[in-house]
Amino acid sequence: MNHDELRHWSKIAADWAHDYHLDLRDRPVRARTPRNAIRDALPPKAPELPESMEEIWADFNRLIPQGMTHWQHPRFFAYFPANAAPVSMLAEQLVNAMACQGMIWQTSPAATEVEQAMMVWLREALGLPDRFTGTIHDSATTATLSAVLTMRERALNWHGLQAGLSGMPVLRLYTSGETHSSVDKAARVAGIGQQNLVKIPTDDSLSMRPDLLEAAIAADRAAGMMPAGVILCVGGTSVGAFDHVAELIAVAKEAGLPVHVDAAWAGSAMICPEFRLLWEGIEGADSVVFNPHKWLGAQFDCAVQFIANPHEQIKTLGLRPSYLETPDQDEVVNFNEWTVPLGRRFRALKLWFLLRAHGLEDLRNRIRNHVNWSRQLCALLSELPDLEIVTAPALSLFTFAHRDGEAATLDLLSRINDDGRVYLTQTRHQDRLVIRVQVGQFDCTEEDVMMVHTVLSELLE
Ligand code: PLP
Q: pLDDT value at position 135?
């Protein structure tokens, strides 16, 4: 394909995208494809000779769309959203067209500088103080790994980077059981080890208990271990738990430990000042991650990490081999030095387009609607005699179960998803299987949300 043909097919693809989104509501949200059907429909080997674009396009249409779970479906209430505002898709198309790689300032100055500006725009939008600067990662998992690696090296006074962990003191991290599994992964990958990620019990509000955090740090020190950092949860994935940030940061600071906050989902809601109570004290954190690709509307992938002292992270992750050196390297920001991968996509462009085309007020209204509709839906479901609300809405996430127990809850969930009009997923909360409902699709309407009630009423009849 040459660029003339690319233009031709791009127009066809744009029309296809328009029509795809137009009738999304008519499609089942979750894919119904039998296991391996798509893989088995593909030839076992790559072709030796070129195939026509017409054939490739026909096969795409025949095989792919029905093999997709539709994340942009307005009645996708599973997991957390991966919202893609149309304008952020447009920005991604432009990034694709340039196919740039922004590993250092020199390789794409605009990518670096728009990213710097967007970090300031988002910091202000979320009400964070200007002690934070930031960068964009592919995922919250990578951001948390970067923060944990920095905690590790800070604790070891940056000796681990050279010497490895053999013979080093046993490092300890502290979090609660409500925090996302990306923290477990970070402890594993950073060589700290899952067993040294201490899960501090939570109180009735699902916040880590500060007294137990303090006691665990003291006990570990007394036993000769080396506490390295605390990871807090602002909007847990399972049921939307919120740690009491101010109190817990106070304990960590008293113990001389850095704090990373995982607000991957709930961070977007902080553009609404009325929700900021939920992370009161956040200004004392050392690192905060939130995913604009979840609730805000920036097409996947886009995870923002705000960092109070980037020099510690740069000291941990930054390398300057001679082939990456530039004469101005001390005057510019080379964002690869802040993150694990060297290569970087131009992710800031979609933030720039999104924030300008919608304005913060429109983005706030969407999130406020989601929270209100989630509360209304929860109230309606609480009136269905077979159902019990297990956790009340935390922002726009709540859970429920069938009163007849786990088998009935599982059966109900599979009937909901086989029906196809809405998509919900499960979690386990305090040893009980529950069904999660999160309201957060960029273009969902009140009617879409209330469809969960319609489907459940019909299925339970
Ligand atoms: N933290 C929370 C609270 C999440 O809900 C998720 C994913 O849903 C993650 C972290 C991991 O996000 P990512 O897929 O960007 O690594």
A: 98
Q: Where are the domains of the chain?
A: 17-84+365-461, 101-345
C-alpha 2 – ligand 1 centre gap (Å): 38
Question: Ligand 1 in contact with 140 (CB < 6 A)?
Answer: yes
Q: How many CB atoms lie within 10 A of CB 28?
A: 18
What was the ipTM of the complex prediction?
Answer: 0.98
- For the stretch 188-236, pLDDT in tens is 999 999 999 999 999 999 999 999 999 999 999 999 999 999 999 999 9
Is the minimum distance from the CB of 300 to ligand 1 under 6 angstroms?
no
Q: Is 303 in the pocket of ligand 1 (CB under 6 A)?
A: yes
Q: Is the CB of 438 under 6 A from ligand 1?
A: no
> CATH second-level architecture of 17-84+365-461?
Alpha-Beta Complex (3.90)
369 lines ligand 1 (CB under 6 A): no
Chain segment 268-286, per-residue pLDDT in tens? 999 999 999 999 999 999 9
Distance (angstroms) between ligand 1 centre and the Cα of 318 equals 24
101-345 has the same fold as 17-84+365-461: no
Q: What CATH class does 101-345 carry?
A: alpha beta
**Which residues of the chain fall short of a pLDDT of 70?**
none
